[in-house]
Amino acid sequence: MTEARYQFGRVASIKASAVGQPGSRRFRLLVEAANGATAVVWLEKEQLFNLALAVKNLIDQVEEAQRQRKRPAARGGAVPSSDVPLSLEFQVGRLAIGFDEGTGLFIFVANEAEEPEHSLPRLSLAADQQMMDALADEALEVCAAGRPACPLCGAPMNSNEKHVCPKHNGHSVLGETKPI
Fold first, then answer.
1. Please, which pLDDT band fits residue 79 given cuts at 50, 70 and 90?
2. Domains in the chain, ordered, with CATH?
3. Angle at CA of residue 136, ends 81 and 104, nearest 5°
4. Is the N end or the C end of the chain the one with fewer CB atoms within 10 Å?
C-alpha cells in the first residue's frame, strides 16, 4: 500500500457523483473504508473523466499482462487500513492509480489541491478490479449527464441561452444556412 497520511486500505465502496445543476455541478468521489470511515474527494469534471479513462486503460493493461503470463489474476488479499478519521473531505490536486500484483488490487492515491508537490499524499486506498471498473463506468455516466456539447465546437451549451459557436463565427444560428 502506498504511504499516505490517511490509508483507507481495501475499501468497501467507491462511487462517483455530481452535485448541482448542469453548468454549475461539483464532482466528487464518495469512499467508504472497511472500518466505516468515509471520505468525500472533490474533483474537477476533467479530473473525474480522466480518472475514468485511466482506470479503463489500466484494467486493459493488467488483463493483457495476465493473458500473456497465462495465469489468473491474483485474488485481492487483505490490505490493512490504519486509523483514519471518521470523515475526511478535501479538494484533489493530483491523482494517481496503479496496480499491486502482490494483492491483485488497484491502488488509488490523492493529493490535496493546496499541498506542495512533494508532500505525502492525503489519501490512499485499494479496490478490486470489479469495483474500479464500476467506478469508471459510473464516472463516465456522471460526466456525460451534464449540458449537451455543441456538435461543431464541443463547447457545452446552456438550454436557457443562445450558443455562439466559434465555428460559425457568430454569424448564423446552429442548423441555419445562409445563401452565399
1. low
2. 6-144 (3.30.2450), 149-180 (no CATH)
3. 45
4. C
